[in-house]
Write a structure and sequence with these properties.
The complex is a heterodimer. In chain A, 38% of the residues lie in helices and 24% in strands. Chain A has 9 helices and 9 strands. Chain A has a 6-stranded mixed beta sheet with strand order 5-6-7-3-8-9, sandwiched between helices. The radius of gyration of chain A is 18 Å and the shape is globular. Chain B is mainly alpha-helical. In chain B, 83% of the residues lie in helices and 0% in strands. In chain B, helix 12 runs antiparallel to helix 13.
Chain lengths: 238, 299
């Protein structure tokens, strides 16, 4: 059974459909990249997968031991977060909230869990620093550590490299790749960056108002649309 | 200077001065705790809007002739707060517009009602007192004091117990909801508590100046401190300090309580801004030093 299954899902706002007939599944250990133009419904899909928005029709279900609240989420940065007075430790700990139950405070085990994620992301030396003083790449690592506190199974990343410089972008992709390959965490990444999608992902979902493609990376590269994109990317390099 | 303390000592023999200080400290503490969350959630003006609703409620209460006006004002304000904070995303009129509408609407209607139907001989005096809080803090009834003590105790307990959740909801509501925490429930609690604080604070500074109690301590603390916990603690300390100094100053120089507290809050904000600027530069140099030393160690 797959970890996440979308069956003929249609998404939209106030009766207006953004995207329809989405059918795909994500298995444990997959690295799915969701690509598509602006307005194709990528952000709407994210909200639906996180359970923040009900689909207009169709079903989204989780299985294989994954509970709906065990999808760790790396959001695009909001303006509020950028000037928020909070230390790295405080933010990472806040990811553990779904593990404390009705207790008002974090216990020792929870604090150790947060500490392990901080070490895993290589930001131990920054843990008492203020979040808003960090660089873009460091901030992404903090939010990634927070997401890992919430789950050890599946990460949903919304444009994780937006606004990062090329060197940091590469480091970020490699970090995500390690989480996928070494720790077996399922990755769903929404991205504009087709070149990276093709390089790292195992599966591609290309959406527009109707889904254009879902399948493995290898099959994607053989399709017309995949060729068009990779040719364009290749053209840029030449 | 000794004269000053002697005068103060004299004043402390009166129970109404003690009451004013107790209520002042508690309200300052509660409003500053919540203020940090409200400022960070971009809701700084909610205090202003809700206090105008509370003013409207008070006008109705006084025309109807209720003896314990709080019993009407608190529920009305709580309802308004819940409507404003919860309705959020799906409404036709956006947040700031609906807040402004509610705020001036309640103020206008409230004044109309009290002007038309009040039996009191001194309408403008009553209204001025509610708007600026002038002397009402010195004329607190026993009921007011007890209500304030109980409500403050509830607010502080709620805040401490929900501290971690309030942080998470304030920092990133989407993430918190996505990981299965009921963020909307905590937003509701924040809305209710905000309304209660504002009604209580109306006694202290009047409904026009309440925003000052909510935002100034939080903003001051944010100039200097950089973690959420330190901002909350500093904000509470600043707020209590300003209120105590403000109340004492207003007694000594017979100035209006509310405006005096706000003036001191403003002064402290300016001082903290300057500290923040100088400290900001310093911490920057310290950081660059450590990074160079780290680099040396690595080599």
């Amino acid at each position: 059974m797959s970890q996440l299954l979308c069956d003929d899902v249609s998404l939209g706002y106030e009766g207006r459909t953004v995207t329809e007939h989405l059918t795909f599944e994500v298995n444990a250990g997959d690295y799915l990249c969701v690509v598509g133009e602006n307005g194709a419904g990528k952000s709407t899909l994210i909200r639906a997968l996180l359970g923040l928005k009900a689909p207009m029709s169709g079903t989204i279900s989780t299985g294989d031991g994954l509970k709906p609240n065990e999808i760790g989420y790396l959001p695009q940065q909001t303006v509020v977060q950028r000037d928020f007075p909070a230390s790295v430790k405080e933010i990472v700990l806040s990811g553990c909230l779904n593990k404390v139950g009705p207790k008002p405070f974090y216990g020792k085990e929870i604090k150790q869990l947060a500490q392990r994620q901080i070490e895993r992301m290589g930001i131990t030396h920054l843990q008492n620093r203020c979040y808003r003083e960090l660089s873009g790449g460091q901030q992404q690592r903090v939010l990634l550590a927070r997401a890992l506190c919430a789950t050890g199974k599946m990460l949903l990343l919304d444009e994780p490299v937006a606004g990062l410089d090329p060197k940091v972008t590469k480091e970020m992709y490699e970090l995500i790749d390690r989480l996928n390959k070494e720790d077996g965490i399922t990755i769903i990444m929404v991205s504009h960056d087709i070149a990276a999608a093709v390089k790292y992902a195992t599966h591609i979902l290309h959406i527009s108002h109707t889904p254009l493609f879902f399948g493995t990376k290898e099959d994607y590269l053989k399709t017309e649309i995949g060729k068009a994109f990779t040719d364009a990317a290749g053209g840029d390099e030449a | 200077m000794t004269d000053l303390f002697a005068t103060l000592g004299n004043y402390f023999q009166y129970p109404f001065v003690k009451n004013a200080l107790i209520v002042g400290v508690l309200i300052a503490l509660c409003s500053s705790l919540l203020g940090v969350t409200l400022v960070l959630k971009r809701l700084s003006f909610i205090g202003d809007g809700l206090s105008h609703v509370a003013f409207g409620g008070m006008c109705v209460a006084s025309v109807v002739g209720l003896t314990q006006q709080m019993l009407l004002i608190i529920p009305v304000t709580v309802l308004a707060a819940v409507g404003l904070l919860m309705g959020g995303k799906n409404r036709k009129i956006k947040g700031d517009a609906s807040l402004a509408m509610l705020s001036v609407g309640a103020l206008g209607l409230g004044y109309l009602i009290i002007n038309r139907f009040s039996t009191s001989g001194n309408i403008s005096g009553d209204v001025c007192t509610t708007l600026f809080g002038s002397t009402s803090i010195l004329t607190l009834s026993k009921f007011d004091v007890w209500l304030c003590v109980v409500m403050s105790a509830v607010v502080i307990t709620v805040f401490v117990l929900l501290y971690n959740r309030i942080f998470a909801v304030t920092f990133d509501e989407t993430f918190t909801t996505a990981t299965g925490v009921k963020a909307s429930a905590y937003n509701l609690i924040i809305a209710v508590v905000t309304a209660v604080i504002i009604v209580l604070a109306m006694k202290l500074v009047g409904s026009l100046l309440i925003s000052a109690l909510v935002i100034f301590p939080a903003l001051s603390a944010m100039r200097v401190f950089k973690s959420f916990k330190s901002v909350v603690i500093c904000s509470a300390a600043v707020s209590v300090f300003c209120s105590v100094v403000g109340i004492l100053a207003s007694i000594i120089w017979s100035t209006p309580v509310g405006s005096t507290i706000v003036a001191i809050d403003l002064a402290v904000f300016l001082i903290f801004t300057i500290i923040g600027l100088t400290k900001g530069n310093k911490s920057f140099t310290i950081q660059t030093k450590t990074t160079t030393s780290e680099r040396n160690e690595n080599q």
